[in-house]
């Protein structure tokens, strides 16, 4: 009898735990869906562009949970990740509480014109040339006994966001970078690789084995055991104290969420330049080789890698790498100093912003201000309206009521915003913007009419440095958010020639959220605005189409981008005419 009672009790406990597990998963999905309902700006555009419907996607996620027998936390994370990725929005991301990850000591890059993949970087500290004959430029043929494209397709099934070339090139980077915190399947143990050495015949391959560098899970992800029985309440990105206008402004970033996580330990600070991965997102230097012999180079301590070279026609050309826009006044002043030097010496300028994850809106505006002698049109935004940003607007109005001149404006707003100058006029712009949001809210709108962010309709030229010579901006499919906006602004104002492949198309500012849960959902982000270009088309999903298309080829990846460099040099000659 006691055994029967024990069995019944044990069965009831297991059933309760499994039921509680599923209930908590469905409840958390509902909370995430409600956050989307309140906070996601591009909802209407997504329905128009890809027929995305929030209710359908939430129901699909809940059905996946309820129909799975004994779902665990990792199953749930994949369901939630798929819900976020259904938006086809690179700003919409989610991070999970998990320590599990695996890496291999090399980086793979995709040829953009065909489905071929090449070794782009090797960490020789972990994979010496003596221990394994692998070289940059070798083609990866098979991964763990199957064609490499099959493994890329599997990664795409867990990570894709709707832009084929961006997804493909990003998946290639993730081939040797797997993190459970991003709901990826994390392998461990040995992996077999088949390579074709660069320059070898098609069938001249070699196969060898290496082992994943694996970090196991340190967090007990057992939601049936730890999930609370009571209902969880939604928690949004609110503030318990009044924020300064500068703090509010700096929270409006345009960047790929969690981009720094994917670089893992890529020897960013290594004294050995060869150890630095030039293919990482947001790196100080990119994979683009030198365009000519340097006659001047920026210091290694400088945030910006920059140089001046003389081309074959005797023209002096400036080059500056813009790695990301997550910087501040100090970096802007360094950029301004470089551009000032270029403006007195060079005949043209190449700006390299490939693999750029974006960053601060007004830091980006500040950089563009030294590249022109005329005001630049800034994008308009549809602004998502909810109580939190209406409170921010009211706080702004209250803080600005006593601003009467430049001095009091700087006292309230700060000296500058990442190099973007602050003045009495800036205070007036912020006041007008805040009053506009309040009036739109009082009209019962969830999404405002298009308006300039903080009423900054134009980006005025810097007062002391104005580069006026021709500019070539290099972009690629791994340019996100601010990496979309920078070339978009300069292209819309006919200030530059843009060269490369289409940017990712992440078109608005990003806001961060959390929901309380016992399932390991840490934080997530979504797009709080929808930006429009000068032609009134969104940047979201559409990105920036270059004036000059250039796709990285297999020959480039085998021969250190020799054809790419020639194409850049040729285009520089054209814009100087």
What is the name of the CATH superfamily of the largest domain?
2-enoyl-CoA Hydratase, Chain A, domain 1
**What is the multimeric organization of the chains shown?**
single chain
CATH topology of the largest domain: 2-enoyl-CoA Hydratase, Chain A, domain 1
Q: What is the number of independent domains?
A: 2
Number of helices: 16
Low-confidence stretches: 1-19, 229-240
The neighbouring-strand order within the major sheet is 12-13-14-15-23-24-28
Query: How many beta strands in the DSSP annotation?
Result: 28
Task: Supply Rg.
Answer: 26 Å
Q: What class do helices, strands and sheet pairing give?
A: alpha+beta
CATH architecture of the largest domain: Alpha-Beta Complex
What is the 3D form?
globular
Helical fraction: 25-40%
Which CATH class of the largest domain applies here?
Answer: Alpha Beta
Q: What is the percentage of strand-forming residues?
A: 15-25%
The largest β sheet comes out as: 7 strands, mixed
Separation, N- and C-terminal Cα atoms: 96 Å
Mean pLDDT figure:
90
């Amino acid at each position: 009898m006691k055994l029967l009672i024990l069995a019944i009790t044990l069965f009831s406990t297991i059933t309760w735990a499994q039921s509680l597990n599923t209930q908590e998963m469905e409840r958390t999905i509902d909370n995430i869906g409600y956050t989307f309902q309140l906070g996601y700006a591009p909802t209407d555009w997504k329905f128009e562009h890809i027929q995305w419907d929030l209710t359908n996607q939430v129901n699909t996620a809940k059905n996946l949970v309820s129909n799975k027998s004994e779902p665990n936390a990792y199953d749930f994370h994949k369901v939630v990740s798929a819900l976020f990725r259904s938006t086809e929005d690179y700003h919409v991301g989610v991070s999970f509480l998990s320590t599990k990850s695996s890496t291999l000591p090399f980086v793979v890059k995709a040829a953009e014109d065909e489905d071929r993949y090449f070794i782009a970087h090797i960490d020789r500290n972990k994979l010496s040339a003596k221990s394994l004959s692998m070289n940059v430029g070798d083609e990866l043929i098979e991964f763990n006994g199957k064609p490499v494209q099959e493994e890329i397709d599997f990664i795409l099934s867990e990570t894709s966001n709707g832009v084929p070339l961006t997804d493909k090139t990003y998946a290639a980077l993730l081939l040797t970078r797997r993190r459970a915190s991003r709901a990826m399947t994390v392998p461990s143990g040995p992996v077999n690789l088949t390579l074709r050495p660069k320059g070898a015949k098609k069938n001249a391959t070699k196969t060898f084995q290496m082992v994943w560098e694996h970090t196991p899970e340190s967090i007990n992800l057992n939601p049936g055991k730890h999930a609370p029985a009571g209902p969880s309440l939604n928690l949004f990105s609110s503030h318990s104290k009044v924020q300064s206008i500068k703090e509010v402004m700096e929270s409006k970033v345009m960047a790929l969420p969690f981009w720094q996580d994917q670089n893992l330990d890529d020897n960013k600070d290594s004294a050995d330049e060869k150890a630095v991965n030039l293919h990482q997102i947001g790196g100080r230097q990119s994979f683009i080789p030198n365009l000519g012999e340097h006659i001047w180079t920026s210091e290694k301590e400088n945030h910006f890698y920059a140089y001046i070279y003389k081309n074959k026609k005797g023209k002096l050309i400036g080059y500056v790498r813009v790695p990301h826009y997550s910087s501040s006044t100090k970096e802007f002043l360094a950029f301004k100093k470089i551009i000032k030097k270029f403006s007195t010496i060079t005949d043209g300028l190449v700006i390299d912003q490939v693999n750029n994850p974006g960053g601060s809106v007004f830091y980006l505006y500040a950089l563009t201000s030294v590249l022109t002698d005329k005001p630049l049109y800034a994008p308009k935004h549809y602004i998502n309206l909810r109580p939190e940003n209406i409170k921010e607007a009211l706080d702004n109005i209250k803080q600005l009521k006593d601003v009467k001149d430049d001095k009091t404006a700087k006292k309230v707003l700060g000296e500058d915003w990442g190099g973007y100058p602050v003045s009495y006029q800036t205070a007036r712009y912020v006041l007008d913007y805040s009053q506009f949001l309040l009036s739109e809210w009082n009209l019962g709108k969830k999404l405002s009419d298009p308006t300039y962010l903080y009423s900054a309709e134009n980006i005025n030229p810097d007062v002391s440095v104005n580069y006026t010579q021709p500019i070539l901006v290099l972009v690629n499919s791994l340019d996100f958010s601010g990496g979309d906006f920078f070339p978009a602004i300069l292209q819309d104002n006919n200030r530059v020639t843009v060269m490369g492949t289409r940017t990712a198309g992440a078109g608005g500012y990003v806001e961060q959220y959390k929901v309380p849960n016992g399932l390991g959902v840490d934080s997530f982000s979504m797009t709080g605005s929808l930006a429009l270009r000068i032609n009134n088309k969104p940047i979201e999903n559409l990105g920036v189409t270059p004036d000059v298309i250039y796709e990285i080829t297999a020959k480039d990846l085998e021969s250190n981008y020799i054809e790419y460099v020639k194409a850049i040099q040729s285009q520089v000659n054209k814009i100087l005419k």
